[in-house]
Hints:
This protein is of the alpha/beta class. It has a single domain, classed as HUPs (Rossmann fold, 3-Layer(aba) Sandwich). The protein contains 11 helices and 8 strands. A 6-stranded mixed β-sheet has the order 3-2-1-4-6-5, with helices on both faces. A hairpin with a 2-residue loop joins β7 and β8. α7 packs across α10 and α7 packs across α11. The chain is globular and about 65 Å long.
Amino acid sequence: MLNPIEESIAGKFGKTIWKPFHKALKEYQLISPGDRIAVCISGGKDSMLLALCMQRLHRHNVIPFDLEFIVMDPGYAPEVRAKVLANAEKLGVPVRVWDTNVFQSAERSPKNPCFLCARLRRGWLYQKAQELGCNKIALGHHFDDVIETILMGMLYGSQVQTMMPKLRSENYPVEVIRPLYLVREENIKAWVSENGLEFIQCACSVSARETKKESKRAKVGQLLKTLRETDPAVDMNIFRSVENVNLRTLISYHSGDEYHHFLDNY
């Protein structure tokens, strides 16, 4: 029996989710024949949508590839874990769960527990993907994440960079891919609402405390919201700015450890 929630991805949301999902796969060459891909599921709306898209692609695609749907439990409360599993069952995604103590380890960091949590999660995912014989891991970052990352780098990191659609790990024989790279968050939220779904947010105690403060990403998100009110094209303009870089107009730039300055050939 067809899952109506999955069918809605290519039906009502075909233009806003399925088409940009396919476009990213093709434009950035994210999947190749013979790939074995670990789809990483946190339990939030983005990773759950990613899992459903990848499952549908696997079922209908002419390119032969394999999937593993992996859930890392970083220390969820029992009710949170139960919700993740219930949603996976509702969507028809066959997940496998592994227990870790990531939350406990990250919360010991007095300065930047969220950074440590993300680093520990990523390292675990790389290792588990390798153990499962996967050469790629798929993450649920979307278009809005990309735009926010560009602005955060400029405003808070004094650098021009972006979140890449795919990236090779320096320490593991695993490649990260982001198939939702061109899917806008507002369309993901619309899909969630249309299907009456409810997914978890970040469920650690640090996150609960941080919501009382305004994070840098939240500030950037609010800035974008304000800019969109007068210029709806601002997101795409920011995105295209990192596709249309003219090195001759930069004071300096570097590729890895190789640095260049405009005075070198002035």
